[in-house]
């Protein structure tokens, strides 16, 4: 039952954002009584916080030894994440927290840290491996990767998002090329 409630919370938050997110709506979507929710989570903040913690695990990547392959893997994982209910809810949380104080600043911080650490580690390995110069602007490269993937997802209609999972590699390829062109400006002579 908990997994059903957690998924319902993520889907509901992804659909409505903070202003429309209610325990009533989650209970209806999950097919449980509202009192059942309140026995486990005292507030909607506690429920969405728990749901995000359960489903938004850090993006772990193996070091392939190739910056291109590592960026492709991260962009692919990121796109899959944003297409998932937890990822879509995390996008909404990030936007809601930026626009107004929702009380989810700790969740927002967790999401930002989780994602920036994955990309930073990737670019740091590229520096250590000689594929990227030591003065490469890692925060800017991270924002370029995440921003491009996110904008791609945001421009898709709901039916297109549903179908996008079947052609992620095709959608990721031009994003990777764009980022590699940016990275080339900061490449060492060995790239």
From TrEMBL:
- Annotated DNA-binding ranges? 22-41
**Claim: DNA-binding is one of the keywords in the record:** yes
Q: Where does the signal sequence lie?
A: none
Pfam families hit by this protein:
TetR_C_11, TetR_N
Q: Which InterPro entries match?
A: Homeodomain-like_sf, HTH-type_TetR-like_transc_reg, HTH_TetR, Tet_transcr_reg_TetR-rel_C_sf, TetR_C
Q: Per its UniProt record, what Gene3D superfamilies does this chain match?
A: Homeodomain-like, Tetracycline Repressor, domain 2
The record's keywords, sorted A to Z, are: DNA-binding, Transcription, Transcription regulation
Q: Kindly indicate whether the keyword DNA-binding belongs to this entry.
A: yes
| A molecular function (GO) term | DNA-binding transcription factor activity
Q: Start and end of every HTH tetR-type domain?
A: 1-59
Q: Which residues form a coiled coil?
A: none
Mind telling me what this protein is named? Answer: TetR family transcriptional regulator
Q: Which organism is it from?
A: Nocardia nova
């Amino acid at each position: 039952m908990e997994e059903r409630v957690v998924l319902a919370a993520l889907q509901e938050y992804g659909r409505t954002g903070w202003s429309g997110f209610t325990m009533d709506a989650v209970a209806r979507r999950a097919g449980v009584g509202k009192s059942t929710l309140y026995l486990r989570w005292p507030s909607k903040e506690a429920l969405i916080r728990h749901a995000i913690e359960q489903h938004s695990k850090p993006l772990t990547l193996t070091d392939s030894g190739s910056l291109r392959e590592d960026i492709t893997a991260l962009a692919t994982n990121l796109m899959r994440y944003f297409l998932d209910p937890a990822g879509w809810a995390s996008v909404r949380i990030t936007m809601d927290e930026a626009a107004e104080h929702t009380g989810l600043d700790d969740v927002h911080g967790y999401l930002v840290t989780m994602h920036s650490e994955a990309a930073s580690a990737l670019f740091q390995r590229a520096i250590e491996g000689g594929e990227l110069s030591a003065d490469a602007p890692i925060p800017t490269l991270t924002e370029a990767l995440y921003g491009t993937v996110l904008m791609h997802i945001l421009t898709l209609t709901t039916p297109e998002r549903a179908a996008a999972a079947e052609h992620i590699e095709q959608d990721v390829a031009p994003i990777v090329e764009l980022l590699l062109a940016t990275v080339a400006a900061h490449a060492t002579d060995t790239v």
